[in-house]
């Protein structure tokens, strides 16, 4: 497994299963987005316990995750990650997604998406509202009224 990390994005290549990610968590750094480059042989895990651990790890992660592939991705891999991207579009997607945003802005946006993984709509909307007011306070130099 090869891990390339910067301040915003961590790219993982040459992994046989997503279970490996849960075992190497500290190597991933603190990304806002984890790009998992998969090929036709990449699996969620080797058995049911590994699959469950890999899915739980990504579901509870404090970052967004994307499976990136040249070909089709199994339903199992696609459902474990937050999104699926085509390999030839991944870099452009990341550039557009995070263009002109600070790490704090990206983390606030991510918090909304992360909450949407498991929470009801009301909680997601509350998270969005709090994020909006925090970002506006930063922009205006005032308090967020939380």
Instruction: Report the structural category.
Output: alpha/beta
What value does the Rg take, in angstroms? 16 Å
Shape, please? globular
How do the strands of the widest beta sheet line up side by side?
1-2-3-4-5
Total of helices: 6
Give helix % range. 40-55%
pLDDT average, as an integer? Answer: 90
Order of helices and strands: EEHEHEHEHHH
Number of strands: 5
Q: Mind summarizing the main beta sheet? A: 5 strands, mixed
What does this structure look like?
Helix content is 47%, strand content 16%. It is of the alpha/beta class and 146 residues long. Helix 5 runs antiparallel to helix 6. It is globular and about 50 Å long.
Key words describing this protein structure:
globular, alpha/beta, 146 residues, five-stranded mixed sheet, 5 strands, 6 helices
List the helices and strands and how they pair.
Elements: E1 2-5, E2 9-13, H1 19-23, E3 33-37, H2 48-59, E4 64-69, H3 75-80, E5 83-86, H4 87-98, H5 103-116, H6 121-140
Parallel strand pairs: 2-3, 3-4, 4-5
Antiparallel strand pairs: 1-2
Question: Could you give a quick summary of the protein structure above?
Answer:
Helix content is 47%, strand content 16%.
């Amino acid at each position: 497994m090869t891990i390339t990390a910067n301040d915003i994005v961590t790219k993982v290549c040459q992994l046989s299963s997503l279970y490996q990610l849960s075992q190497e968590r500290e190597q991933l750094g603190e990304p806002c987005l984890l790009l998992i480059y998969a090929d036709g042989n990449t699996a969620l895990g080797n058995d049911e316990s590994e699959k469950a651990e890999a899915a739980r790890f990504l579901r509870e992660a404090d970052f967004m995750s994307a499976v990136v592939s040249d070909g089709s991705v199994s339903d199992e891999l696609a459902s474990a990650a937050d999104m699926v991207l085509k390999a030839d579009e991944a870099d452009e997607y990341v550039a557009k997604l995070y263009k002109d945003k600070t790490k704090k802005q990206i983390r606030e946006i991510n918090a909304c998406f992360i909450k949407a993984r498991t929470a009801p709509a009301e909680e997601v909307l509350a998270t969005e509202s709090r994020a909006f007011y925090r970002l506006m306070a930063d922009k205006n130099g005032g308090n967020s009224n939380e």
